Amino acid sequence: MENHVTATQNAEPKPGRSGASSAADTTSTAGAAALPRTGSSGRLGNRIFAGLSTGSGVLILVILAAVAAFLLYRAWPALTAGADTFAEVDFMSGRGLWAWVAPLVFGTVLSSVLALVVAVPLSIGIALFISHYAPRRLAQLLGYVIDLLAAIPSVIFGLWGIQWLMPLVSPVFTWLSTRLGFIPLFAGYQAPARNIMTAGLVLAVMILPIITATIREVFLQTPRLHEEASLALGATRWEMIRQAVLPFGRSGIISAAMLGLGRALGETMAVLMVLSPGYAINLFLLQPGQHQSIAANIASHLPEAGSTGVDALIASGLILFAVTFGVNLIARWVINRRAEFSGAN
Amino acid sequence: MSKRIDISDLNVYYGDFLAVEGVHMSIEPRSVTALIGPSGCGKSTFLRTLNRMHEVIPGARVTGKAVMDGQDLYAPDIDPVEVRRQVGMVFQRPNPFPTMSIADNVLAGVKLNNRRISKAAADELVERSLTGANLWNEVKDRLEKPGSSLSGGQQQRLCIARAIAVQPQVLLMDEPCSALDPISTLAIEELVHELKNDYTIVIVTHNMQQAARVSDRTGFFNIEGTGKPGRLIEMDDTTTMFSSPAQQATEDYISGRFG
Ligand SMILES: Nc1ncnc2c1ncn2[C@@H]1O[C@H](COP(=O)(O)OP(=O)(O)OP(=O)(O)O)[C@@H](O)[C@H]1O
Ligand SMILES: [Mg+2]
Questions:
Q1: Which pLDDT band, with edges at 50, 70 and 90, does A7 fall under?
Q2: What residue spans define the domains of chain A?
Q3: Which one of 3.60.150.10, 3.40.50.720, 3.40.50.300, 3.50.50.60 gives the CATH number of domain B5-95+172-254?
């Protein structure tokens, strides 16, 4: 497929674009003054650029397809195998593939959703502060700090979660569990806070920079025209933000959230370090040993897995891939549904 | 529902730069006041001080007085938000909210400050404002479509509908027709003519014929050179301004000899 596409790319200009462009090439090398030199080199540059950008576009597709193909190929034996195939795999404790993967999918999505619920409102707030409230100096400084935060490796976030965040949230969780424990969400907290809520919080801090940076860019692009329209109607600054900035940035906010979600879904290290794993499907956010994410699960079991085990782990990887893909499709759909009102026209 | 504005000794600064200097002007209620003058002489700058929209620009400030029916617009206890509700504004480029439907655009100002209005009252207000802006017949079948789906001229009339929906005392228009074709321009001029029965209107325009057609009084701003402040050179009844202006500069500008 790759060969086919590049071949057409190369072959196309000669028969397709008639004689003009190729004539320009030959005349300029021959030194004839019929066409100005800048024209032909510009055209050549144009063609190189067009080729490069098309090439990279195609390359992305090819890589994506190759990854999908690899996952599918390697996961196939596990996906089609009967339940008894996995009896020998320790970490699956006698479950079939789907019964084993379902709680992992649940844990992955739950931790990521928790992260988003915390990170998105916070990011919108920070981005608004930077774009519309803070004095310019402070806004710049904050922008740098946020960008720096994005550069911190996830192991550090894992360490930070264990050393700093856990002791900090532990009393809060204790309070929640004793006072509001009748709500299943908060029931049965046990220290240390190696639960899905803490994992979600660490993930939230990790995805905060990318979401904030993206949303800030979108907010900064709100047309001045619309902000002034709102202010001239007698809007306060907050009303102007609700009337002009937030609706304009809506699809940008969704895209940013999806970027963050993508990262949270696939995050391995921090979850692995913070969460005490379990294979249940429930919403006891404060209990340890209930949930696990796919990525962390792969990382923790891959070293000791036999060949069947590796197949199962790769199958779970494929499913993670599918989940991420599905999430993105849904996001696209949400954005396009109101494209008419997006302000892009 | 229309008030007079008296401006005295008004200076407008952008940071240290004095953009407009020493304006004295009376704006009569229920009349159209046109502001003309060459580019960069501070017409927009001056206009924005009348509803304190200049405060939106970092570094912009005024000295002097603008008094609307006895109330100093720049008094420290006056909220700019309150001023803008009474002094509406239509901009050079049509700027309906693209994220809102036509009907919601009209209601945008009314819904501010958490004011609630009933569905029936809202429908009635949408129809009344759009009718007032001569747009109702063209859009009554597609009120739920986005505001940006209209033509430029229709969008500008939508913006006028949005501005008059909050029933301001004064309506400021900064070159409202400069992005429009002659037919839409005519539609807006007719509209201005009708609106002056209810509102005080101040309109900035580069089009002499337009100033002559729509306005009762005309003010001419000029600037001596780049970096110099703009000044109000002369202000009089429009017929006088266009037939026998007192200042040579006014006559030169109006007859197209410069600017
Ligand atoms: N936001 C701003 N910051 C600094 N200076 C400004 C700003 N806006 C306008 N000025 C300056 O103030 C002066 C008056 O500008 P203004 O826009 O009021 O002119 P105008 O008469 O409306 O011109 P035009 O007819 O081209 O619209 C100009 O010298 C301009 O450069
Ligand atoms: Mg102007």
A1: very low
A2: 81-341
A3: 3.40.50.300
Give pTM, 2 decimals.
Answer: 0.81
Name which residue sits closest to atom 26 of ligand 1, judged by CA. Answer: B39
Cα of A239 to ligand 2 centre, how many Å? Answer: 26
> Which residues have a beta carbon within 5 Å of ligand 2, which is an ion?
B 44
Which CB contacts under 8 angstroms, 24+ apart, belong to B6-10?
A: B6/B65, B6/B66, B6/B67, B7/B50, B7/B64, B7/B65, B7/B66, B7/B67, B8/B64, B8/B65, B8/B67, B9/B63, B9/B64, B9/B65, B10/B46, B10/B49, B10/B62, B10/B63, B10/B64, B10/B65, B10/B66
The full set of domain ranges for chain B reads: 5-95+172-254
Buried b / exposed e along A296-331 (16+ C-beta atoms within 10 A): bbbebbeeebeebbbbbbbbbbbbbbebbeebeeeb
Which residues on chain B are in Cβ contact (under 8 Å) with A241? none
Please write the tens of the pLDDT for every residue from A37-80.
555 667 888 889 999 999 999 999 999 999 989 989 999 988 88
Residue A145 Rama label (left phi>0; alpha psi -120 to 50; beta)? alpha
Percentage of residues in chain A having pLDDT higher than 70? 86
The CATH number of A81-341 is which of 1.10.3720.10, 1.10.760.10, 2.60.40.10, 3.40.50.300?
A: 1.10.3720.10
DSSP B146: B
Distance to chain B for A240, nearest Cα, Å = 9
- Output the six-digit token pair for A310: 């590796």
The percent of residues in chain A predicted with pLDDT above 90, rounded, is 54
- What residues are in contact with ligand 1 under a 6 Å CB criterion? B 14, 19, 39-45, 57
Chain A: closest CA distance from residue B166 (Å): 8
A242, closest residue in chain B (CA to CA): B112
